[in-house]
Specification:
The protein is mainly alpha-helical. The chain contains 4 helices and 3 strands. It has a 3-stranded antiparallel β-sheet with strand order 1-3-2. The longest helix is centred in the last third of the chain and has 19 residues, at about 50-70.
C-alpha cells in the first residue's frame, strides 16, 4: 500500500473481495457523483489508483442509499 492511502485496482479487489469487473462497475458509479469522483485517480490510460478513504465514503453512501431504498415507503417519508 502507498503511504498516502492510495491503492491499485488489484489491491482494492483483493482487500474488498471483489472481482475487477465489479470494481469497474462501482468505479463508474462512483465517478457519477461529484463528491466522490476524485476517489478514482487515472494519471495515465494504463494506471488507476484509488483514494481508499474516499472510496470507503462512497461505499458507505451506496450502502445508505440502498438501505433507504429498501425501507417501507411510509418510513422513507419520515426521514
Amino acid at each position: 500500500m502507498m503511504a498516502n492511502s492510495w491503492k491499485t485496482v488489484p489491491e482494492i479487489c483483493a482487500d474488498y473481495g471483489i472481482k475487477d469487473k465489479t470494481f469497474y462497475a462501482w468505479a463508474d458509479e462512483c465517478r457519477s457523483y461529484p463528491e466522490y469522483r476524485d476517489a478514482i485517480i487515472c494519471p495515465t490510460g494504463k494506471r488507476t489508483f484509488i483514494d481508499e478513504d474516499k472510496w470507503q465514503a462512497f461505499l458507505r453512501f451506496m450502502s445508505e442509499k440502498r438501505r433507504k431504498k429498501l425501507l417501507d415507503p411510509h418510513l422513507r417519508e419520515e426521514e
